[in-house]
Amino acid sequence: MDNLIQTATKFAPQLLVLVFLLITFITSAIDKITDWNGNIAYFNEHFGSTFLKGKSSLMLGFLTLLEAIAAILAIIGIVQIYLNGNTTIGLWAAIISAKTLLIMLLGQRIAKDYAGAMTIAVYFTVTLYGVSLLG
Q1: Of the candidates 104, 89, 91, which has an alpha carbon nearest to the alpha carbon of residue 32?
Q2: Helix H or strand E encompassing 110
Q3: Is the sign of the CA dihedral 102, 104, 110, 115 positive or negative?
């Protein structure tokens, strides 16, 4: 038990970022899976006047896959830190998360949703901090 507490203390910033990424991406992926039709409708409307029109299913599927991978890697990264103090998988979780957020940012910019793009920048800042801490 003391070892878990020491690990949690020593790696507190890394673990907190990984938990943040886990919460962010697991909830988002679950929402996309459980409300697929609602998300397709949103994507159709959001990208309806762009060159991405008609590609909602493909985009939503790809984004959901990336979010699920990021969340799974975050879980594994948290466990790996507790088991042996290694941050390698956590780093990969943060890198995949950053790439996912960049894809989302690109989509928001293409759709000219500048407020949405600005929101993603906040998540990206935390994610970059995680990449720095875990690397």
Answers
A1: 104
A2: helix 88-110
A3: negative
SS (H, E, C) 10-76: HCHHHHHHHHHHHHHHHHHHHHHHHCHHHHHHHHHHHCCCCCCCCCHHHHHHHHHHHHHHHHHHHHH
Side chain identity, residue 81? I
Contact 73, 25 (CB under 8 A): no
* pTM listed for this prediction: 0.93
> Positive or negative CA dihedral for 46, 52, 55, 57?
negative
Using one digit for the tens of pLDDT, what is the confidence trace for 31-48?
A: 999 999 999 999 999 999
